[in-house]
Hints:
Layout lengths: L1 H19 L9 E14 L7 E13 L3 E17 L2 E21 L2 E20 L2 E23 L2 E11 L11 E12 L1
Amino acid sequence: xxxxxxxxxxxxxxxxxxxxxxxxxxxxxxxxxxxxxxxxxxxxxxxxxxxxxxxxxxxxxxxxxxxxxxxxxxxxxxxxxxxxxxxxxxxxxxxxxxxxxxxxxxxxxxxxxxxxxxxxxxxxxxxxxxxxxxxxxxxxxxxxxxxxxxxxxxxxxxxxxxxxxxxxxxxxxxxxxxxxxxxxxxxxxx
Length: 190
């Protein structure tokens, strides 16, 4: 966790002065809330049903309407697969804290990027001969994402996103998982 926070602090220290010098004009900052729905795909070996619905909600602040910080909650649904003696499922959900950027390309179109720490709650369930075994851990992983937005109004946009989440766990009791999410996103700025 300390390494993740240190990385975020360094990223903030580098990007915030750059955003302030972007064009020498003092633009006010912007708070935002956003939410998204999408299709998650668990990249875990042996899962024959790796898809589910993902839901993402977040809020944050952007300096100069370009660089900012964000926090939120993500539910990546459940991936399932058949093991040698039964069925296994893996579910990830958790809190995010990171940096983001929104870059106007032309007119109402913009590109977005985000990265940060994903505090994942990983739950694994195995069913063998009618017996269910549950296990879970909380781990510090990461997330990264890119997208394209279209401003319907000055303060509201819709967009397409791809985010990648990793729970960061590789010890006993649960398995490491990487989950990709293709989805739509809505953002309101105030």
